[in-house]
C-alpha cells in the first residue's frame, strides 16, 4: 500500500504528528487520509456522515460503542454510522513507521440508493434480510478483492484524471455492494444453526467448524456430506456464501491461527501452522499474508509489542 501513497505524500502537508488529516473531494464522497507518527492514546474522531475506514499501514486499537476494544490491522475496515465517536490508540506509531488509515465518507442518499438495489437483488435462503451500513458500527475483515478496490480508490482520488468522478462513482458503488455482501456473509457464517439449520450447506458449515484442524478436509468430502456432486456443491457453496469452500476453510483456519498466536506467545510459527490444520508452512504463510496483509511473524511481533 505504501507505493499507492507516494502521490499523496508529495502533496500533503504534515501539520500534526497525531492523525494528520488530508482530504480529497469527489462529487458525492470525500477521502480522508490520516497519518500518525508517534505513540498516542484515546484520540477521538467523529464524522457527520457515514464512514468506511480502512487501515493502510500499522496498527490501531479501536474503542467503539457497543463493541469490545479490538486490534485494527491493514486489510480490515470499520463501517461507522454518522455522528458516532471512535476512540483510537496508536501503540506502534513512530516517525519511521507511521500508522496510516483512510476514512471514506459517502453521501447518505447515495448509500441508500445502492442499498435499495442490493436488497432487491440479494436474499438469504428462508430469511427476509434488509442489509444496510447505517444502523450500527461493524468491524469487517476484507477479502482480496476489497483490498484491491481500496487501493484503486486511493489511486483515483489522488490522481488528476479528467474522468475521476465517473471512475469513483463506479468504484464506490462496488465498494458498498462488497461491504454489504461481507456483512451478509458474516451473518450467515456466525449464525449457521439459526439460518441454515435445515439446509445442506448449513450442515457443511457446522462440519467444517467442528473439524477445523482436520488436515484431511477436501471439497470431495464436503460434497459427500452435502449429498451433492463435487461440481454442484462447489457452485452452490460459492453462490450462497460468495466464497469457495477452500477459501472459506483457509479463512477459518487463519482466524484460528491468530487466536493461537495471541494465546500462545511461545509457540513457533511452524507449530501454529500445524495446530491450525495446515500441512505446509509455506502455504500457511502465503494464506496468512493474503488474508491479513502481513506475515504471521509480523502479526506475532505487532501483537507482542501492542
Descriptive overview:
Helix 7 crosses helix 8. 32% of the residues are buried. The protein is 47% helix and 19% strand. The chain has twelve helices and ten strands. About 2% of the residues have low confidence. It has a six-stranded antiparallel beta sheet with strand order 1-2-9-4-7-10. It has a four-stranded antiparallel beta sheet with strand order 3-8-5-6, with no helix packed on it. It has 306 residues and is of the alpha+beta class. A hairpin with a 3-residue loop joins strand 1 and strand 2.
What brief labels describe this structure?
four-stranded antiparallel β-sheet; six-stranded antiparallel β-sheet; about 300 residues; 12 helices
How would you briefly describe this protein structure?
With 306 residues, the protein is α+β, with helices and mostly antiparallel strands. The chain contains twelve helices and ten strands. The strands form two sheets. A six-stranded antiparallel beta sheet has the order 1-2-9-4-7-10. The chain has a four-stranded antiparallel beta sheet with strand order 3-8-5-6, with no helix packed on it.
Amino acid at each position: 500500500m505504501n507505493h499507492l501513497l507516494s502521490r499523496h505524500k508529495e502533496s500533503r502537508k504534515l501539520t500534526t504528528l497525531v492523525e494528520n488529516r488530508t482530504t480529497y473531494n469527489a462529487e458525492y464522497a470525500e477521502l480522508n487520509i490520516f497519518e500518525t507518527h508517534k505513540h498516542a492514546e484515546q484520540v477521538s474522531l467523529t464524522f457527520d456522515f457515514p464512514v468506511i475506514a480502512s487501515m493502510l499501514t500499522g496498527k490501531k486499537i479501536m474503542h467503539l460503542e457497543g463493541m469490545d476494544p479490538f486490534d485494527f490491522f491493514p486489510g480490515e475496515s470499520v463501517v461507522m454510522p454518522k455522528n458516532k465517536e471512535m476512540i483510537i490508540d496508536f501503540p506502534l506509531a513512530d516517525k519511521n513507521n507511521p500508522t496510516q488509515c483512510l476514512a471514506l465518507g459517502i453521501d447518505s442518499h447515495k448509500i441508500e440508493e445502492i442499498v435499495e438495489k442490493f436488497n432487491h437483488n440479494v436474499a438469504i435462503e428462508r430469511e427476509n434480510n434488509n442489509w444496510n451500513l447505517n444502523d450500527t458500527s461493524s468491524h469487517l475483515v476484507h477479502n482480496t478483492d476489497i483490498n484491491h478496490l481500496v487501493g484503486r480508490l486511493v489511486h483515483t482520488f489522488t490522481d488528476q484524471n479528467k474522468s475521476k468522478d465517473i471512475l469513483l462513482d463506479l468504484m464506490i458503488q462496488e465498494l458498498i455492494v462488497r461491504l454489504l455482501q461481507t456483512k451478509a456473509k458474516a451473518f450467515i457464517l456466525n449464525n449457521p444453526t439459526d439460518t441454515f439449520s435445515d439446509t445442506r450447506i448449513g450442515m457443511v458449515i457446522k462440519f467444517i467448524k467442528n473439524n477445523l484442524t482436520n488436515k484431511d478436509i477436501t471439497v470431495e468430502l464436503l460434497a459427500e456430506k452435502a449429498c451433492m456432486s463435487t461440481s454442484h456443491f462447489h457452485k452452490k457453496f460459492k453462490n450462497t456464501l460468495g466464497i469457495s469452500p477452500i477459501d472459506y476453510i483457509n479463512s477459518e483456519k487463519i482466524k484460528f491461527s491468530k487466536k493461537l498466536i495471541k494465546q500462545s506467545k511461545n509457540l513457533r510459527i511452524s507449530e501454529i501452522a500445524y495446530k491450525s490444520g495446515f500441512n505446509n508452512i509455506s502455504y500457511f504463510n502465503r494464506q496468512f499474508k493474503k488474508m491479513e496483509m502481513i506475515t504471521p511473524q509480523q502479526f506475532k511481533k505487532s501483537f507482542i509489542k501492542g
